[in-house]
Amino acid sequence: MSFDFDLFVIGAGSGGVRAARMSAAAGARVAVADDKALGGTCVNVGCVPKKLYTYASHYGHDFSDAKGFGWQVDEKPAFDWHHLVTAKKQEISRLNGIYGNMLEGANVTVLKGFASFVDANTVSVNGIHYTAKNVLIATGGTPYRPPNDWSEHTITSDEVFDLPEFPQRLFVVGAGYIALEFACIFKGMGAKVDVSYRGDSVLRGFDQDIRPFMDHELHKQGINVHYNSNIDSITKTATGLLVTLDNGFEHEVDQVLMALGREPRLSNIGLEKIGVEQNSNRTIKVNDVFASNVPGVYALGDIVGAPELTPVALAEAMTLVDHLFGEDKRRMDYSNIATAVFTHPNIGTVGLTEQEAREEYTNVEIYRSEFRPMKHTLSGSDERSLMKLVVDKDSDRVIGLHIVGEGSGEILQGFAVAMKCGATKAQFDATIGIHPTSAEELVTMRTPVT
Questions:
Q1: pLDDT at 254
Q2: What angle do CA 77, 82, 86 make, to 5 degrees?
Q3: Taking the CB of the first residue and of the last residue of the chain, which one, N or C, has fewer CB atoms within 10 A?
């Protein structure tokens, strides 16, 4: 049978674009379709704008810290939300153009529109049918919004970057990494921020030392976290939104940000029509080369249940391209994937938490250090840092590394390489530290705490 394309990609996010470009470079005829802007979540409403806004929010702390180093700030610095939003839009537009140029340069056919399956080898876009030997689903995720009556009064991370006015009073629902990143961003920009969470500690799934430590750092910034609480109602008032929790707490705010996680963006693309098997959480079941149960239909990225990270989607795309148009030797290794959370202060983590390590290994040692960074000996800030190593004593391998502190993501990348290579605690100890830095703490901890 003759096909229009060797590969048709549904979704032009990080994973889809990488798969399309590299498949075309391997000689395949490729098309990619999306009804949203090129670059997907990461470029448009995720990693990129979030990091830009994180940079913006840090100036709020830096202006204050500068006084301790002799800088005289005679007037209170003023923050211009509209200037930031405009600058962000210009940068995102530039990146959208780069993605378009890359696809065009690779001879990938780009189709603007919503794509859905007609059958396993046929996709419809804007009423036109296209056939393909292989179809890749790379549609990414979308913020979860609960089906409550009051949800109409809320926003998600998709809308928060482009609000017409800066929310002087922000209420964040959720206490995962997305919720806390935005709480810290808007607090740094000058907003009053409250967070509500149904559990009793922030950052579920993170190491048990990081969670209370970060809670304390949030509290020191003036971010109010309401634990063991759920939204009972949100009603519009003449001056904002009145949030009522199920414990009776009431608070008027300007915006309510829902940050309760994300779900696969798979509605109406026709999975049921072609019989693609899904997991209980609606992610698509795939094997180690990202093939679904339907021959010729593949999926990767946020919709397959792996870590929802842009670099993971890129690596999965390379595995798929190698399978379809290469030597079929690549396979994904999801162990020791480093992640950073751009709260204030930052969080970095790679490998196992202490709890996970104790469940998997019989002889675990913990090294932990909490300290005031050198910068804050003069800044006047009471911000502190935490560093922790989790070690399998039997092999001496470092199997978990967790950081809270400025620049954690930058610090972590190199240590992630070491852990990927199987570095031992003895090798950490034998490494000469860079002084004076916070990072040197990771190679100077000698006495286990447990």
A1: 98
A2: 120
A3: N
| 171 DSSP β-pair partners | 194, 256
pTM over 0.90: yes
Q: Is pLDDT of 237 > 80?
A: yes
CATH code 3.40.50.920 for 5-143+263-325: no
Residues 335, 421 contacting (CB under 8 angstroms) = no
pLDDT digits (tens, 9 = 90+) for 23-69: 999 999 999 999 999 999 999 999 999 999 999 999 999 999 999 99
Residue 123: name the closest of 33, 40, 38 by CA. 33
Give domain 149-260's CATH number out of 3.30.1330.60, 3.90.1300.10, 3.40.109.10, 3.50.50.60.
Answer: 3.50.50.60
Spell out the residues 6+ positions from residue 225 whose beta carbon is closer than 8 angstroms to its own.
Answer: 175, 194, 195, 196, 197, 202, 215, 218, 219
Mean pLDDT of the chain: 97
The model's pLDDT over 400-423, given as tens digits with 9 standing for 90+, comes to 999 999 999 999 999 999 999 999
**CA separation (Å) from 247 to 243, 259, 433?**
12, 20, 50
Helix (H, G, I), strand (E, B) or coil at 209: coil
Average pLDDT over residues 205-232: 97
For residues 277 and 285, is the Cβ–Cβ distance under 8 A? yes
Fold matches, 5-143+263-325 and 149-260: yes
Q: Which of 30, 48, 162 lies closest to 106, judged by CA?
A: 30
Angle at 296 between CA 290 and CA 299, to 5 degrees: 30
Instruction: Take residue 438 and report the two structure tokens written for it.
Output: 């916070």
Sorted by where each begins, the domain ranges of the chain are 5-143+263-325, 149-260, 339-443
For residue 145, the one-letter residue type is R
Active site residues: 435
Region 310-335 average pLDDT: 98
Q: Say which CATH architecture domain 339-443 belongs to.
A: 2-Layer Sandwich (3.30)
Is-contact 54 185, C-beta < 8 A?
yes
CA distance linking residue 277 with residue 286, whole number of Å:
9
- What H or E segment, with its residue span, contains residue 245? strand 241-245
pLDDT for res 76: 81
Percent with pLDDT over 70 in the chain: 100
DSSP per-residue string spanning 377-424: HHH-----EEEEEEEETTTTEEEEEEEESTTHHHHHHHHHHHHHTT-B
